[in-house]
Amino acid sequence: MIKHLLTRIELKMNTFSKGQKRIAKYIEEHYDKAAYMTAFRLGEIVGVSESTVVRFASELGYNGYPALQKAMQEMIKEKLTSVQRIEVTENRIGDGDILTSVLNQDIEKIRRTIDEVSREDFEKAISSISNAGNIYVVAVRSTSALAGFLGYYLELIFGNVRIINTSSKSGMYEQLFRISEKDVMIGISFPRYSTTAVEAMQFARERNADVIAITDSMVSPLVECADSVLIARSDMASVVDSLVAPLSLINAVIVACVLKQKDKVVETFRQLEEVWTTQSVYTRQDVEVTEDPKNV
Asked: Do residues 78 and 221 lie in contact, with contact meaning Cβ atoms separated by under 8 Å?
Protein backbone atom coordinates (compact mmCIF):
# COMPACT_ATOMS: atom_id res chain seq x y z
CA MET A 1 0.00 0.00 0.00
CA ILE A 2 1.30 3.46 -0.95
CA LYS A 3 1.89 5.45 2.22
CA HIS A 4 3.32 8.80 1.17
CA LEU A 5 0.64 11.45 0.64
CA LEU A 6 2.32 13.23 -2.29
CA THR A 7 2.78 9.93 -4.12
CA ARG A 8 -0.91 9.15 -3.71
CA ILE A 9 -1.83 12.58 -5.08
CA GLU A 10 0.48 12.22 -8.08
CA LEU A 11 -0.94 8.82 -9.02
CA LYS A 12 -4.57 9.98 -8.74
CA MET A 13 -4.21 13.48 -10.22
CA ASN A 14 -5.64 12.63 -13.66
CA THR A 15 -8.78 11.13 -12.10
CA PHE A 16 -9.63 14.13 -9.89
CA SER A 17 -12.44 16.56 -10.59
CA LYS A 18 -11.56 20.24 -11.06
CA GLY A 19 -12.32 20.94 -7.41
CA GLN A 20 -10.25 18.00 -6.19
CA LYS A 21 -7.33 19.12 -8.37
CA ARG A 22 -7.44 22.52 -6.66
CA ILE A 23 -7.27 20.80 -3.27
CA ALA A 24 -4.39 18.60 -4.46
CA LYS A 25 -2.39 21.57 -5.79
CA TYR A 26 -2.91 23.52 -2.59
CA ILE A 27 -1.73 20.59 -0.45
CA GLU A 28 1.35 20.06 -2.66
CA GLU A 29 2.35 23.72 -2.30
CA HIS A 30 1.07 24.53 1.20
CA TYR A 31 0.78 21.27 3.18
CA ASP A 32 2.41 22.96 6.18
CA LYS A 33 -0.63 25.26 6.40
CA ALA A 34 -3.28 22.76 5.26
CA ALA A 35 -2.23 20.23 7.92
CA TYR A 36 -3.88 22.27 10.67
CA MET A 37 -6.99 23.43 8.80
CA THR A 38 -10.44 21.96 9.24
CA ALA A 39 -12.08 20.44 6.16
CA PHE A 40 -14.38 23.46 6.03
CA ARG A 41 -11.47 25.93 6.16
CA LEU A 42 -9.46 24.07 3.50
CA GLY A 43 -12.51 24.01 1.23
CA GLU A 44 -13.05 27.72 1.82
CA ILE A 45 -9.45 28.52 0.88
CA VAL A 46 -9.50 26.59 -2.42
CA GLY A 47 -13.11 27.39 -3.31
CA VAL A 48 -14.86 24.02 -2.84
CA SER A 49 -17.37 22.63 -0.37
CA GLU A 50 -16.47 20.84 2.86
CA SER A 51 -17.99 17.63 1.48
CA THR A 52 -15.66 17.84 -1.55
CA VAL A 53 -12.67 17.94 0.79
CA VAL A 54 -13.96 14.91 2.69
CA ARG A 55 -14.51 12.99 -0.56
CA PHE A 56 -11.01 13.98 -1.67
CA ALA A 57 -9.56 12.29 1.42
CA SER A 58 -11.52 9.14 0.64
CA GLU A 59 -10.36 9.20 -3.00
CA LEU A 60 -6.78 9.09 -1.73
CA GLY A 61 -7.53 6.02 0.34
CA TYR A 62 -7.78 7.66 3.76
CA ASN A 63 -10.47 6.78 6.26
CA GLY A 64 -11.86 10.29 6.49
CA TYR A 65 -10.39 13.79 6.61
CA PRO A 66 -8.66 13.40 10.03
CA ALA A 67 -6.49 10.64 8.53
CA LEU A 68 -5.51 12.95 5.66
CA GLN A 69 -4.68 15.65 8.20
CA LYS A 70 -2.47 13.23 10.10
CA ALA A 71 -0.60 12.36 6.89
CA MET A 72 0.08 16.05 6.23
CA GLN A 73 1.25 16.57 9.80
CA GLU A 74 3.69 13.65 9.52
CA MET A 75 5.14 15.30 6.40
CA ILE A 76 5.92 18.60 8.06
CA LYS A 77 7.39 17.42 11.34
CA GLU A 78 10.99 17.53 10.14
CA LYS A 79 10.54 20.48 7.81
CA LEU A 80 9.08 23.26 9.93
CA THR A 81 11.56 25.97 10.84
CA SER A 82 11.34 27.80 14.15
CA VAL A 83 9.65 30.76 12.43
CA GLN A 84 7.05 28.46 10.82
CA ARG A 85 6.36 26.87 14.21
CA ILE A 86 5.46 30.26 15.63
CA GLU A 87 3.07 30.91 12.73
CA VAL A 88 1.39 27.51 13.13
CA THR A 89 0.98 28.00 16.87
CA GLU A 90 -0.54 31.44 16.35
CA ASN A 91 -3.01 30.03 13.81
CA ARG A 92 -3.99 27.22 16.21
CA ILE A 93 -4.65 29.43 19.22
CA GLY A 94 -5.78 32.65 17.54
CA ASP A 95 -7.41 34.93 20.10
CA GLY A 96 -8.16 32.07 22.48
CA ASP A 97 -6.92 31.44 26.02
CA ILE A 98 -3.30 30.35 25.60
CA LEU A 99 -3.08 28.53 28.95
CA THR A 100 -6.23 26.48 28.34
CA SER A 101 -5.30 25.73 24.74
CA VAL A 102 -1.78 24.52 25.50
CA LEU A 103 -2.83 22.38 28.48
CA ASN A 104 -5.72 20.83 26.57
CA GLN A 105 -3.39 19.95 23.69
CA ASP A 106 -1.03 18.24 26.16
CA ILE A 107 -3.93 16.32 27.72
CA GLU A 108 -4.92 15.09 24.27
CA LYS A 109 -1.36 13.89 23.60
CA ILE A 110 -1.39 11.83 26.81
CA ARG A 111 -4.75 10.30 25.80
CA ARG A 112 -3.35 9.34 22.39
CA THR A 113 -0.24 7.88 24.03
CA ILE A 114 -2.40 5.65 26.24
CA ASP A 115 -4.19 4.34 23.15
CA GLU A 116 -1.14 3.86 20.95
CA VAL A 117 1.73 2.60 23.10
CA SER A 118 2.29 -1.16 22.76
CA ARG A 119 1.80 -2.99 26.06
CA GLU A 120 3.83 -5.90 24.68
CA ASP A 121 6.78 -3.66 23.83
CA PHE A 122 6.43 -1.91 27.19
CA GLU A 123 6.75 -5.18 29.11
CA LYS A 124 9.62 -6.29 26.88
CA ALA A 125 11.44 -3.01 27.51
CA ILE A 126 11.01 -3.28 31.29
CA SER A 127 12.42 -6.81 31.22
CA SER A 128 15.43 -5.71 29.14
CA ILE A 129 16.18 -2.79 31.46
CA SER A 130 15.85 -4.92 34.61
CA ASN A 131 18.24 -7.59 33.32
CA ALA A 132 20.83 -5.34 31.68
CA GLY A 133 24.48 -5.31 32.61
CA ASN A 134 24.63 -1.60 31.83
CA ILE A 135 21.89 0.83 30.82
CA TYR A 136 22.75 3.50 28.25
CA VAL A 137 20.34 6.41 27.85
CA VAL A 138 20.89 8.51 24.71
CA ALA A 139 19.17 11.84 24.01
CA VAL A 140 20.36 15.25 22.85
CA ARG A 141 19.09 18.81 22.57
CA SER A 142 15.63 19.38 24.13
CA THR A 143 15.15 15.67 24.90
CA SER A 144 18.30 15.59 27.02
CA ALA A 145 16.09 16.71 29.92
CA LEU A 146 14.14 13.46 29.55
CA ALA A 147 17.37 11.46 29.54
CA GLY A 148 18.49 13.18 32.72
CA PHE A 149 15.21 12.46 34.48
CA LEU A 150 15.08 8.81 33.39
CA GLY A 151 18.78 8.27 34.07
CA TYR A 152 18.57 9.78 37.56
CA TYR A 153 15.93 7.31 38.74
CA LEU A 154 17.34 4.29 36.93
CA GLU A 155 20.70 5.00 38.55
CA LEU A 156 19.06 5.02 42.00
CA ILE A 157 17.28 1.75 41.21
CA PHE A 158 20.02 -0.18 39.40
CA GLY A 159 23.29 1.74 39.79
CA ASN A 160 24.55 0.92 36.28
CA VAL A 161 23.38 3.83 34.12
CA ARG A 162 25.30 5.95 31.63
CA ILE A 163 23.64 9.05 30.20
CA ILE A 164 24.89 10.17 26.79
CA ASN A 165 23.72 13.59 25.72
CA THR A 166 26.63 14.89 23.67
CA SER A 167 26.23 15.96 20.04
CA SER A 168 29.90 15.23 19.40
CA LYS A 169 30.42 12.05 17.36
CA SER A 170 33.79 11.32 18.91
CA GLY A 171 32.41 11.91 22.41
CA MET A 172 29.45 9.66 21.76
CA TYR A 173 31.52 6.72 20.51
CA GLU A 174 34.04 7.14 23.34
CA GLN A 175 31.18 6.60 25.80
CA LEU A 176 29.62 3.79 23.80
CA PHE A 177 32.52 1.64 22.62
CA ARG A 178 32.22 -0.82 25.54
CA ILE A 179 28.52 -1.56 24.94
CA SER A 180 27.82 -5.27 24.43
CA GLU A 181 25.10 -7.89 24.14
CA LYS A 182 24.72 -7.80 27.93
CA ASP A 183 23.60 -4.16 27.86
CA VAL A 184 20.55 -2.15 26.87
CA MET A 185 20.30 1.22 25.13
CA ILE A 186 17.33 3.56 25.49
CA GLY A 187 17.26 6.06 22.64
CA ILE A 188 14.98 9.10 22.97
CA SER A 189 14.25 11.40 20.04
CA PHE A 190 11.33 13.39 18.66
CA PRO A 191 11.05 15.60 15.56
CA ARG A 192 13.26 17.07 14.49
CA TYR A 193 14.95 13.70 14.96
CA SER A 194 18.53 13.67 16.19
CA THR A 195 21.11 12.13 13.86
CA THR A 196 23.26 11.45 16.92
CA ALA A 197 20.54 9.38 18.60
CA VAL A 198 19.91 7.35 15.44
CA GLU A 199 23.61 6.62 14.93
CA ALA A 200 24.05 5.67 18.58
CA MET A 201 21.20 3.19 18.33
CA GLN A 202 22.62 1.73 15.11
CA PHE A 203 25.98 1.26 16.86
CA ALA A 204 24.28 -0.45 19.82
CA ARG A 205 22.40 -2.77 17.47
CA GLU A 206 25.67 -3.69 15.72
CA ARG A 207 27.09 -4.62 19.15
CA ASN A 208 24.02 -6.82 19.80
CA ALA A 209 22.73 -4.78 22.73
CA ASP A 210 18.98 -4.61 23.33
CA VAL A 211 17.69 -1.35 21.90
CA ILE A 212 14.62 0.54 23.13
CA ALA A 213 13.21 3.53 21.24
CA ILE A 214 11.12 6.22 22.90
CA THR A 215 9.75 8.28 20.03
CA ASP A 216 6.57 9.69 18.51
CA SER A 217 5.51 7.31 15.73
CA MET A 218 6.31 4.14 13.82
CA VAL A 219 7.75 6.22 10.96
CA SER A 220 10.46 7.60 13.26
CA PRO A 221 14.02 6.73 12.12
CA LEU A 222 14.65 5.25 15.59
CA VAL A 223 12.18 2.43 14.97
CA GLU A 224 14.32 0.56 12.44
CA CYS A 225 17.06 -0.06 15.03
CA ALA A 226 14.82 -0.89 17.98
CA ASP A 227 13.83 -4.19 19.60
CA SER A 228 11.09 -2.40 21.55
CA VAL A 229 9.28 0.79 20.51
CA LEU A 230 7.46 2.98 23.04
CA ILE A 231 5.28 5.56 21.31
CA ALA A 232 4.58 8.85 23.08
CA ARG A 233 2.84 11.64 21.24
CA SER A 234 4.62 14.97 21.02
CA ASP A 235 3.98 18.20 19.13
CA MET A 236 7.04 19.54 17.41
CA ALA A 237 4.97 21.87 15.23
CA SER A 238 4.43 24.06 18.27
CA VAL A 239 6.68 26.95 19.37
CA VAL A 240 8.27 24.66 21.96
CA ASP A 241 8.76 20.90 22.00
CA SER A 242 5.85 19.43 23.96
CA LEU A 243 7.30 16.56 25.97
CA VAL A 244 4.49 16.07 28.48
CA ALA A 245 3.37 12.69 27.10
CA PRO A 246 6.94 11.35 26.75
CA LEU A 247 7.63 12.31 30.37
CA SER A 248 4.47 10.50 31.51
CA LEU A 249 5.58 7.43 29.58
CA ILE A 250 9.00 7.61 31.23
CA ASN A 251 7.29 7.87 34.64
CA ALA A 252 5.49 4.62 33.81
CA VAL A 253 8.80 2.96 32.85
CA ILE A 254 10.37 3.98 36.16
CA VAL A 255 7.40 2.77 38.22
CA ALA A 256 7.34 -0.56 36.36
CA CYS A 257 11.08 -1.06 37.00
CA VAL A 258 10.59 -0.36 40.72
CA LEU A 259 7.72 -2.82 41.05
CA LYS A 260 9.54 -5.52 39.07
CA GLN A 261 12.37 -5.52 41.64
CA LYS A 262 10.44 -4.27 44.64
CA ASP A 263 12.38 -6.05 47.42
CA LYS A 264 15.77 -4.96 46.07
CA VAL A 265 14.60 -1.39 45.48
CA VAL A 266 13.05 -1.12 48.95
CA GLU A 267 16.37 -2.06 50.53
CA THR A 268 18.23 0.41 48.27
CA PHE A 269 15.96 3.27 49.26
CA ARG A 270 16.07 2.28 52.94
CA GLN A 271 19.84 2.73 52.85
CA LEU A 272 19.50 5.95 50.89
CA GLU A 273 17.07 7.37 53.44
CA GLU A 274 19.59 6.68 56.18
CA VAL A 275 22.30 8.51 54.24
CA TRP A 276 20.01 11.42 53.41
CA THR A 277 19.00 11.75 57.07
CA THR A 278 22.56 11.44 58.43
CA GLN A 279 23.93 13.95 55.93
CA SER A 280 20.97 16.38 56.26
CA VAL A 281 20.28 16.23 52.55
CA TYR A 282 16.74 17.54 53.00
CA THR A 283 15.36 20.25 55.29
CA ARG A 284 13.44 19.23 58.40
CA GLN A 285 10.66 21.81 58.13
CA ASP A 286 8.12 19.12 57.37
CA VAL A 287 9.16 17.18 60.50
CA GLU A 288 8.67 20.00 62.98
CA VAL A 289 5.42 21.55 61.77
CA THR A 290 3.56 20.22 64.84
CA GLU A 291 5.43 22.54 67.18
CA ASP A 292 3.65 25.66 68.36
CA PRO A 293 5.60 28.69 67.01
CA LYS A 294 4.84 30.58 70.25
CA ASN A 295 6.79 28.04 72.28
CA VAL A 296 9.89 28.08 70.08
From this structure: no
Q: For 163-189, what is each residue's pLDDT tens digit?
A: 998 878 888 899 999 999 999 999 999
CATH number of 5-76: 1.10.10.10
Helix (H, G, I), strand (E, B) or coil at 283: coil
pTM: 0.71
* Radius of gyration of the CA atoms of the chain, in A: 24
What is the residue-wise DSSP string for 229-253? EEE---BTTSSS-B-HHHHHHHHHH
Give the residue among 236, 232, 217, 214 at the shortest CA–CA distance from 111: 232
| Nearest one of 225, 244, 241, 251 to 112, comparing CA atoms | 244
For the chain, which residues make up each domain, given as ranges?
Answer: 5-76, 117-277
117-277 maps to which CATH number?
A: 3.40.50.10490
